[in-house]
Design brief:
Chain lengths: ~250, ~300, ~280
């Protein structure tokens, strides 16, 4: 366990000093600041624009960070042979993968915290209570944790470009999971229905983790929804991380 | 005392793209390394040295054969705990400092915090990097990175140190320092296993060597047995045509000089008299012992012959 | 010379670009008079490709729509209002209230098309049954257009939303009076008076309204009876009691203060001192 923690902290330290992260952070905060001005263009509720733009900025820049940092994590190690010294240590391979993933989560958590606080401040400055946004920000973190797991899985066995494409594709497919449900009803053949059903169940359903609309309009969620959705997201993420560990275990380092 | 490293029947081949074609990297290798010795795995590039090393560490799975470190398979953490490894052309994290880097590896070995600090300082001093504790690694030169890699391999005082091409990319000063380090490790009772294609270094350091070519062992044993210390022949170089009375091979060079290979001192005396009589200009006399390079080239040629025949 | 060449090339490229841009701008203003077609994909499609960011896309389209509709010279301005605000934005974020009432405002106030505007507000209320503000706004639009009965219906719907302010009941009653249904208005004002949630001020207003409406109803009833008498007998009655004897009214109503209504046989007008107090 201490190995996982040591590797996680190191990964965090290494990633947090990479300047690309600061670029992403600057863009996200810039966008939230911009939202204040964009909201002047609207007729009616100005705060809604700030909330929507802010939450989407945190989500999208979080996705960018997850893809960039997550995908390069394992690739850099393998490409640059740091993995060789690491695996010659008395450390198991799964501890290495888990440590990398935990480090990535730390990085993403920091990013979401900083941008989240910026958004809460922007909304509070407009005179509204930003408390209803907190669940949405937490669920964005859960969604990013799930995407990060896929980023680590893909980068365990392929080059960074394919891994990045795979990660973004997972994000898109995850948000279109509802369409497989619809397709199942439209398709005629039994095998087609089975395929749609399988895809709908197996693919991560990211819409279930999306509570932005409810948060912005202040609509209370069904009791128990947040814990269940969090359990779904984190549970799915753990499955993917375990898969990544298995893939990495079998890998040969030529 | 049992062998520190024992390789038996090790074999590994790689498939080409899309499964077409097969390259044999290592074909049936047997090796044993005894405790407290410096062992050199030698061979030209592409001989399978690095592949063998990676199999020894569990980074690759052998197609056949076994690897035992301290009697344990490399997948056993207990075995890895007792060794230190430096890969070829290492590269480390850009943004960490040497202290942070060594601290991580120390933690992975389970060394407690106060002890770690001592060891890090000692290791950095030993490799000549004291004073650079807070410089980020991306600012390190290649030689400095190599030295840091060595520090990482020895900081936990392992019984076995495995080095892949430790001298590559270093300037003569750096190479001297690495040589001294390896010797000091043996003096402290540790075992050192390194691979190299620079034979002069091996000659200066190793107790025993193994020479591999195209994945096969072509020679192995004590250095003293393979390359005896006595001079094997004496080289005499002179200007002019070779007079009679020289019993040994003579090679004429296009620039007017010639090189004679004489079997012993008696033949040398006779040749010198003959040349004095012919008033030829003597350029140099050089008693040669067979070097590892000679052995190497000879064995390689022999192996190639075997291939051609089969 | 070597340094001059890139500068000249740059100048040339800039000039060309600037000229082309000027030409395009001129073309834009020439096109102003044409009917513009708006290719905005429908809401369901946009929702699909927004990948979880539907509310943001709704905001962006709404912001764009505000700019689009501030251009008064646009030909055929009102063609796409329902599509933009009702189909696209509402589909992306059905709980976003601003587009419903802004779209309705554009349609009722600028295009003078009450029914189209009401349709938008109806859609908004169907998606947001907790938002009494939407039928409230609809009621006022009907009032502006003079359709008082419809207004009453909307205020009724607004008042029925749990948590709606009690003042809506008064609006309902007042609008009923304006629509001419005095009996209905009286009933509603009575409901306001009886409303346990109402405050002192509301009850006072209700009482005054009931007073005034009762007088109005009585006067209307008496006036109608007088005219009927005149038609039957050929002359106006000499006093109000004649109406009772003639069987046109069962009995003479008294005003809220208990006084009989005044009747001027010369003009045939009935009046009440109570109405003067109210000024209603």
């Amino acid at each position: 366990m201490r190995a996982v923690v040591a590797i996680a902290l190191n990964t965090f330290r290494e990633a947090i000093r990479d300047r690309i992260l600061y670029l992403i952070l600057a863009f996200a905060i810039g966008l939230i600041a911009l939202a204040r001005f964009v909201s002047l263009l609207t007729v009616g509720s100005e705060v809604k624009i700030i909330k929507d733009l802010g939450l989407s900025a945190i989500s999208i820049f979080g996705l960018l960070a997850t893809t960039f940092v997550g995908v390069s994590l394992l690739f850099k190690e393998i490409e640059r042979r740091t993995v060789l010294t690491m695996l010659a240590q008395p450390v198991r391979r799964w501890q290495f993968v888990a440590g990398k993933y935990a480090g990535l989560l730390l990085v993403l958590g920091s990013l979401v915290s900083v941008t989240g606080l910026a958004l809460l401040a922007a909304v509070a400055l407009k005179g509204e209570s930003p408390v209803s946004l907190v669940p949405a920000i937490l669920m964005i973190m859960v969604e990013l944790a799930l995407i990060a797991a896929f980023a680590v899985l893909f980068s365990a066995f392929t080059n960074p470009i394919l891994a990045a494409v795979g990660t973004v594709a997972t994000y898109v497919a995850g948000h279109l999971s509802w369409s497989f449900d619809l397709l199942e009803k439209r398709v005629d053949s039994a095998s087609g229905k089975l395929l749609c059903r399988a895809l709908h169940v197996v693919l991560p359903n990211l819409d279930r983790l999306d509570v932005k609309a409810a948060a912005v309009h202040g609509v209370p969620l069904a009791p128990g929804y947040l814990p269940l959705a969090t359990a779904y997201g984190l549970g799915y993420a753990s499955v993917v991380v375990v898969l990544a560990c298995v893939v990495f275990e079998r890998r040969e380092f030529v | 005392m049992s062998d520190v490293i024992a390789l038996s029947g090790l074999a590994k081949s790689f498939h080409g793209h899309l499964g077409i074609g097969r390259t044999v990297a290592v074909a049936g290798l047997d090796l044993a390394v005894r405790p407290g010795e410096i062992f050199g795995l030698l061979g030209p590039n592409g001989a399978g040295k690095t592949t063998t090393l990676k199999m020894m560490l569990g980074l690759l799975r052998p197609d056949a054969g076994t690897v035992r470190l301290f009697g344990l398979p490399p997948t056993d953490l207990a075995a890895r705990k007792r060794l230190g490894f430096l890969p070829e052309n290492p590269y480390f994290y850009d943004y960490l400092t040497p202290v942070e880097f060594l601290d991580l590896y120390g933690r992975l070995h389970g060394i407690e915090a106060p002890e770690r600090k001592h060891r890090i300082a000692a290791a950095l001093a030993k490799v000549g990097l004291a004073g650079r504790e807070s410089t980020q690694l991306r600012k390190f030169s290649k030689g400095m990175v190599q030295r840091l890699g060595l520090a990482q391999a020895i900081q936990h005082d392992p019984e076995l140190v495995i080095l892949d091409e430790p001298m590559s990319g270093l300037d003569p000063v750096g190479r001297r320092e690495v040589r001294d380090l390896i010797l000091s490790l043996r003096a402290a009772g540790r075992t050192v296993f390194f691979s190299s294609h620079i034979l002069q270094d091996a000659e200066m350091l190793c107790d025993r060597v193994a020479i591999v070519f195209k994945g096969r062992l072509v020679a192995s044993g004590h250095l003293d047995d393979l390359v005896p210390r006595e001079a094997r022949w004496i080289e005499l170089s002179f200007r002019g045509a070779a007079p009679s009375g020289i019993d040994g091979e003579v090679r004429q060079n296009p620039d007017g000089t010639a090189l004679a290979k004489l079997p012993d001192v008696a033949a040398l005396t006779r040749a010198l008299n003959a040349l004095a009589g012919a008033k030829a200009e003597i350029l140099s006399v050089w008693p040669r012992r067979e070097t590892l390079e000679d052995l190497f080239l000879r064995e390689i040629e022999r192996a190639r012959e075997r291939e051609r025949v089969s | 010379m070597r340094r001059l060449a890139p500068i000249l090339a740059l100048l040339f490229a800039c000039t060309c670009t600037w000229g082309a841009r000027a030409g395009l701008v001129r073309m834009d203003s020439a096109r102003k008079g044409e009917k513009e077609l708006l290719y905005l994909p429908n809401g369901k499609y946009l929702k699909a490709i927004s990948l979880g960011h539907a509310p943001l896309v709704a905001d962006l389209i709404y912001l764009w729509a505000i700019q689009y509709y501030s251009d008064y010279e646009r030909a055929d301005r009102y063609r796409y209002v329902e599509h933009v605000f009702g189909d696209v934005v509402a589909e992306l974020d059905p709980r976003y209230l601003d587009p419903y009432w802004l779209g309705a405002l554009i349609l009722t106030v600028e295009a003078h098309e009450l029914d189209r505007g009401l349709k938008l507000l109806d859609e908004g209320f169907a998606n947001n049954p907790q938002q009494w503000i939407l039928p409230y706004l609809a009621g006022w639009e009907c009032d502006h257009a003079g359709q008082y009965e419809r207004a009453v219906g909307y205020f009724e719907r607004a008042a029925a939303v749990p948590g709606a302010p009690a003042a809506l009941l008064r609006l309902e009653a007042g609008m009923t009076a304006r629509s001419g249904d005095l009996r209905g208005a009286l009933k509603r004002w009575q409901a306001v008076l009886d409303n346990p949630r109402g405050d002192e001020e509301a009850r006072a207003i209700a009482q005054r309204q009931i007073r005034g409406l009762t007088v109005q109803a009585d006067l209307a009833q008496l006036t109608a009876a007088i005219e009927a008498f005149a038609r039957r007998e050929g002359h106006r009655p000499r006093s109000l009691h004649d109406l009772v004897s003639a069987g046109l009214v069962p009995e003479l109503p008294l005003d809220p203060d208990g006084n009989p209504y005044a009747y001027d046989p010369a003009t045939g007008e009935v009046s009440s001192p109570a109405s003067r107090v109210l000024g209603s």
